Amino acid sequence: MDRSWVPQDTAGILLVSADPYLQEEAKRIVAAAGGSLSTAVDVTDSVHGWDSADVVLVGSDVRELPPRGRPPTVLLGRASDGDGLWKLAAALGAERVAVLPEAAGWLAEHLSMSGSPDPGGMVMGVIGGCGGAGATTTAIWLAQAAADHGVSTMLIDGDPWGGGLELAVTAEDIPGLKWPDFAETRGSLDPGQFRDSLPFAGGFAYLSWPGTREPIHSPDAGAVAAVMDAARRSFELILVDIGRSGEGVRNLAWDCDRMVLLVTAHLKSAVAAGRILSELPPMDAGLVVRGSSASLVDAGLIADSLGLPLLGVLPEVRGVDAGTDMGRVLDYGRRKPVNRFAMSVLELNGAVQ
After folding, report:
1. Angle (CA) 283 260 297, round 5°
2. pTM of structure
3. N or C end of the chain, less CB within 10 A?
4. Cα torsion 258, 263, 265, 271: sign
5. How far apart are CA 285 and CA 298, in angstroms?
6. For 39-90, how does the pLDDT look when each residue is reduced to its tens digit (9 = 90+)?
7. pLDDT by residue (tens digit) across 139-183?
């Protein structure tokens, strides 16, 4: 699936870094993407070009930003930076992270598209603040509601340890590619071919980890980035069931434009959600509370404690847990309380006009 990228409009790109390796990699990648690169070795040197650049790249050697409201577009780093790279990105407010040289192909594609007036579809992440909050079920219901209202929608399984989202979506064996099929992907994927390669159920496309016990070949960060770019160019709304592993947060949360955090209406759940929230990149986020007649904590109080707007209360639907094991989550999504909940979340987040 290795495809060459075709540069669109030439973009003015600023790199802020004194790291010779990152400077050389950026020169090579920007040249391939058809952009124009200028380099500043430190924050002071970058002040005059920061606001006028189409894209701002910041190296992992940078620890402060100029007095500007605009965050850097991409933080560049090396694999040896480890988890500290994502922590730095969160501190700087970077929109994306590129680990070089693995993410060189993705970065070239990202830069080549930076001059386009169409940013592509909106990516909404769904993540549980604690176990059992219902993130996977919620992601499926949101995708179903969006598709029912005419929005071109894709659902992505972001948890390789979750047993396979496909098992909850449908009991049928629907043909289409899964995550391991993209393990060798590099560069750019054709949007039409990508869309046609995916399975569809409930009116939306989905990309799942296999629901089997066999060992799987996981895509690396570059392949994941290529898939996410293709998804943006193929669909209006992309919902990502991120999962609660560090791998899912690192590889997928940074591609999201908005985030829905789910908790149960209990104090312990709210505390756990606060920890998850601190690991997420800076973005618009809202809260969904899974309530019941036995709930001990008011949903509004939980939202206030986390500093998030309350998007809705996930209705309790009898039998949904058993239905998940039987691939019948979509059946429950057709119920009026579920549909009202899903549409409320989507409207508040601006995903459905």
Report:
1. 120
2. 0.72
3. C
4. negative
5. 19
6. 999 988 888 888 888 889 999 999 988 876 577 889 999 989 988 898 898 8
7. 999 999 999 999 999 999 998 888 889 999 988 889 999 999 998
